[in-house]
Amino acid sequence: MIKPFYRLLIELTNGRWSSWIIKKFSQSSISRFIIPSFARVYSLKQEEMEKGLHEFPTLHDLFIRRLKAGKRKIDSDPNSVVSPVDAVIEDIGVIRETSEMEVKGKTYSVLDMLGDQDTVRKYLNGSYIILYLSPSHYHRIHSPITGMVNRQWTLGSKSFPVNKWGLKYGRKTLSKNYRVITEIKTSSGYVSVVKVGAMFVNSINVIHEGNKLEKGSEMAYFSFGSTVILLFEKGIFQLDHSIQIPKEIKVGEKLGILK
């Protein structure tokens, strides 16, 4: 009975006022009383957490929790691209010449996603990877590569669900939701990290300082479950042979290499 309630609370709600109420509740001290049941329902790995459940003053604090040092190993290959999040790999594919990508049978515009034609041109015929974070996942976002931030910008205003129901029935959620895009310049070419908000507007918090990003370093966090999309210029990314769809993956695990 309680799990459907949490699913409704976290995954399906997208109305303006209901989202606002739930957001306020999750940030209130009252929400601490449901932390134990939430952790149980979603099987949170408490042994990985930096703090014990009783140390989180609100449900929101639990969502943005940090892990104990050493719980995520960053792949040491200097050319590797690693997962920026704990997530499920939902889809991998090629960005069409028309700037479209097909996900779960639905076509998304990369032009809509990135916001301008000049940026999109870099990624035509390149690769994309979609990583979905459920409410049970660790919600901090790490840099998948080492490089310099070329540009960072925000688009969109609403945040509809990006779970499997949202992808199937939503209105272009990946390209229309509130999102923060970080474009990173590497020695191989450009990579964009598209952080897509879910359910709550402005639920993405950027925390990196300066323009240099080291592979595995924290760059942002989600307040609630969401999605990260990685976009690669044509010809610069080679997927690792171990990657399949769907696949659970953790921060720092190898997705492939930059060529």
- How many structurally independent domains? 2
Coarse structural class: alpha+beta
What is the CA-CA span between the terminal residues? Answer: 50 Å
User: What ranges have pLDDT less than 50 throughout 5 or more consecutive residues?
Assistant: none
The number of helical runs is 8
The beta-strand count equals 16
Strand order of the largest sheet: 11-7-8-9-13-5-2-15
Largest sheet: 8 strands, antiparallel
Considering DSSP H and I runs of 4 or more, what fraction of the residues is helical? 10-25%
Mean pLDDT equals: 86
User: What is the approximate shape?
Assistant: globular
Strand content of the residues, in percent? 25-35%
Question: What is Rg?
Answer: 18 Å
* N-to-C series of helices and strands: HHHHEEEEHHEEEHHEEEEEEEEE
Tell me what the structure shows.
By secondary structure, the protein is of the alpha+beta class. The chain has two domains: 62 residues, no CATH class; 179 residues. Helices cover 21% and strands 30% of the residues. The protein contains eight helices and 16 strands. The strands form four sheets. Strands 11-7-8-9-13-5-2-15 form an eight-stranded antiparallel sheet. The N and C termini lie far apart (50 Å). The model has no long low-confidence stretch (mean pLDDT 86).
Main attributes of the structure:
259 residues; alpha+beta; eight-stranded antiparallel sheet; three-stranded antiparallel sheet; 16 strands; 21% helix; 30% strand
